[in-house]
Amino acid sequence: MQLNLSDETPPAGYERLLFVEDKTSGLRAYICIHSTACGPAAGGCRMWNYASQSEARADVLRLAEGMTSKNAVAGLGLGGGKSVIIGNAASDKSEALFRAFGKAVNSLQGQYYTAEDVGISPDDMAMIAQMTPFAVGLDHGDHGSGDPSPFTAEGVFQCLKVGAAEVFSSGDLTGRKVLVQGLGHVGMSLAEKLHQAGAELIVSDINADAIAQAQARFGASVCAPEAVFETDMDIFAPCALGGVLTHETARRLTARLVCGAANNQLATPDVAETLRARNIHYLPDYVVNAGGIISVAGEIHQAGPEYRQARLAGVAERIQQILIASRETGKTTTCVADEMVASIIADARAQQAGAA
Ligand code: NAD
């Protein structure tokens, strides 16, 4: 291992940006700590075939900041951070690469906890964990939390019911037309919950097997990926990619409620205004999809199942508060959520300053 760790100057508002290189294994990665105001930073590790180092840098900065918001609003006692490994998840993985990455995470001495994100499996995380205790989301061991997706789906489902109660004056989903975009780890689990709750499911995916499964198991009707914004629905649950809501798609969307797991659903923050102008209630993604990091936080804090259950219930309560505040103030739900985050972080900083 020839590990080289170089601190880069992060943008204003960020605490640390580390570029990691190991010539022996070919590892090239960024680790970013956005904020430790609320506690040690936590956020997944993504492996992606970035076109350039600067693209990876931009991604890690954006993702780390998002984790600060997500962890703060979920009340996890954790700050925000993220890491990205530059490489092809299908062909560039090796034990040496993950061990080198684990050593880099360990060098931060618990200021950053890593877990799975896109391109990283529990097996990869186990290799990272050979070099550091600050790797979580493990499939084994006394406190391993395993796959976070069922927790994410449960959180989304609870929020969706709260949103339905606000928009349709009833959280009863019987007969509600819900379009689930993306039937992956989270989307399929959410679809199952919606089916059990009596919703009329419409599903969309580029994976024919997933579609066939949803048709067979839930009697779902199918919508072609390009027809989502032409389809009649009550609720839209984006569980595939980020950036699906642009000004243009927001103008065509037939739903009155948006609640899904995908990160960064709004292509730009001001799409929230377009949605509100059309009286479409948007439930901020980083609040709604916190179930996964809640599961991981349970592992970090070595807490029992009651910790996860309480925090998951808290996610739906937060959404309720956000909807009420948005209704009363006329602000968008994203604006209310962002203000909530700012206030939680300011309180945490004041406490840190008081304790120092
Ligand atoms: P996944 O990779 O298991 O599933 C994604 C699904 O979307 C796949 O079935 C894929 O075929 C489908 N898809 C891709 N492009 C599509 C398109 N154009 N139209 C329709 N379907 C398309 O991912 P996941 O773990 O289920 O996560 C889903 C989303 O939720 C991601 O944005 C992820 O970042 C976010 N998220 C996941 C978790 C978690 O616990 N897994 C937590 C927070 C946020």
UniProtKB/TrEMBL annotation:
Family, similarity comment: Belongs to the Glu/Leu/Phe/Val dehydrogenases family.
Single GO BP term: amino acid metabolic process
Query: Which residues are annotated as active site?
Result: K82
* GO molecular function per UniProt: nucleotide binding; oxidoreductase activity, acting on the CH-NH2 group of donors, NAD or NADP as acceptor
Residues reported in the UniProt entry to bind NAD(+): G182, L183, G184, H185, V186, G187
Q: Which SUPFAM superfamilies match?
A: Aminoacid dehydrogenase-like, N-terminal domain (SSF53223), NAD(P)-binding Rossmann-fold domains (SSF51735)
Any idea where the Glutamate/phenylalanine/leucine/valine/L-tryptophan dehydrogenase C-terminal domain is?
Answer: 146-353
Listed Gene3D superfamilies:
Leucine Dehydrogenase, chain A, domain 1, NAD(P)-binding Rossmann-like Domain
Say which domain of life the source belongs to. Answer: Bacteria
Q: Which SMART domains match?
A: ELFV_dehydrog
Q: Which UniProt keywords apply?
A: NAD, Nucleotide-binding, Oxidoreductase
Is Metal-binding given among the entry's keywords? no
The protein in question is named: Amino acid dehydrogenase
